[in-house]
Design goal:
The protein starts with a strand and ends with a strand. The chain contains one helix and 21 strands. It has a domain of 128 residues: Sandwich (Jelly Rolls), CATH 2.60.120.10. The chain is mainly beta. Belongs to the pirin family.
């Protein structure tokens, strides 16, 4: 089954220099029919205006992923971490038993645009830990680059989480294929451009800000269809 959620269907807020787009129930936005998709609890897109951001707040037993699309995001928390996150950087924090963290735009002239995703951890009460890795546009071009995942290696999460996240820049006319197992789900989000999804369920056209929620076994084909020459997307394979 493939369900498309368009950009227009996301819950939108704009206050105190922060523009927010929520794909699932989050904060004051409550929809009992749209609370999560598998282990993905939140998929938020934020734009922080210059010198704006989120003050320290407390979270526990969540794995939080930051993926910066434009600008520089400053992340800090009470473990002593202070990071400047830029496009091409993926940051993962397993909040574990609890951490106070904040995200801000320290620039006086440029906006920051980023994705923040929340996942259920493998188990509760783990020690707070961080993971950060970098990738290039060349590595994403016309392939599905795993930017975080379970198992071993440079892209592994600090504690086992049964999630693999891919990033791809797909040139117009280029195709990628993917076999989704019967007990898995995929959340696909288009950052920019236009992507065509083909499977036994049919053909679906999605554009920037749209998401596809895919579950049960599928042989998937993704085709770049942007008039601007390329499309960018994030794909999450999870239980």
């Amino acid at each position: 089954m493939i369900k498309i959620m368009t950009a227009a269907e996301r819950h939108t807020t704009h206050e105190d220099g922060i523009h927010s787009e929520f794909s699932f129930s989050f904060g004051d936005y409550t929809d009992p029919h749209n609370e999560h998709f598998g282990s993905l609890l939140a998929h938020n897109e934020y734009v922080l205006q210059p010198m704006e951001g989120f003050d320290r707040r407390f979270h526990h037993d969540l794995v939080i992923v930051h993926l910066v699309l434009e600008g520089t995001l400053t992340y800090e928390d009470d473990t002593g971490k202070l990071m400047e996150l830029t496009p091409g950087t993926i940051h993962v924090v397993n909040t574990g038993s609890g951490v106070y963290h904040a995200e801000r735009n320290a620039s006086s002239s440029e906006d920051v645009r980023y994705l923040e995703m929340w996942f259920l951890p493998a188990e509760p009460g783990l020690e707070t830990s961080h993971h950060q890795s970098n990738f290039t546009k060349e590595q994403q071009l016309n392939q599905m680059l795993p930017i975080i995942g379970s198992g071993n290696g440079e892209s592994s999460l600090p504690q086992s989480l049964d999630v693999v996240m891919y990033s791809s820049i797909l040139e117009t006319g280029q195709e990628l294929t993917y076999s989704l197992a019967g007990d898995r789900r995929m959340h696909l989000y288009v950052i920019r451009g236009h992507v065509e999804i083909s499977s036994e369920d049919g053909v679906f056209d999605i554009t920037a800000g749209d998401a596809a929620r895919i579950q049960r076994r599928h042989e998937l084909t993704f085709r770049g269809n942007s008039s601007e020459g390329s499309s960018e997307m994030v794909l999450i394979d999870m239980p």
